[in-house]
Fold:
Amino acid sequence: MRFDIVTLFPDFFTSPLSSGLIGKALIKQIAQVYFVNPRDFATDKHRRVDDEPYGGGVGMLMKPEPIFAAVESLPILPRREVILMTPQGQPLNQKLLGDLAINYDQLVVICGHYEGVDERVLHLVTRELSLGDFILTCGEIPALTLINGVVRLLPGTVGKVESLKAESFEAGLLDYPQYTRPAEYRGWKVPNVLLSGNHGEIARWRKEQQIQRTQERRPDVYEDWLRNLDNSQG
Structure:
């Protein structure tokens, strides 16, 4: 998997991409991350990448020319997606991360700044993605989230593939409660079923907890799970 990050601040990614499982995955060449700076493609003497919006308004917009030139300088792999991280985009979720990990060889990610990008940049874009209904100072934060979420799903990143299948959202439900030693801490005890050694009972308890937790914490996810359950049984 190749990531090409179009960013004004490539140094933003240095520490996160050299740490933990993601850092190890990049060392093993499970994925490659490259950076291209639109400022390197600015043609005026001040190397400007932003300007005032037509029609007035607060703030500045990223200009189209440097972004187009930056993206067009990149190699094109057969299965490529050009993504703009924007609050107006499709919400990023686990299913979508899985789709990107399986079906694409190259993700080009455009990181916006200021008040966003010139609308004409969307002619480059094949998908707009959002972390949620809130505003951040830069597109690098959601881009880093996207890299992390996709790379950890690539074969070889996570040692035990089974652990990926048991996570929140993978089965349409939130994860079940988990405990480790000690068996009692400050009066809070690990549920007896987890100490019983009865794997059938443990599996049943975990599924019940998943359903209960999802219904209480994320009723929207619970309703989707119920619909999918009905469709699969219908």
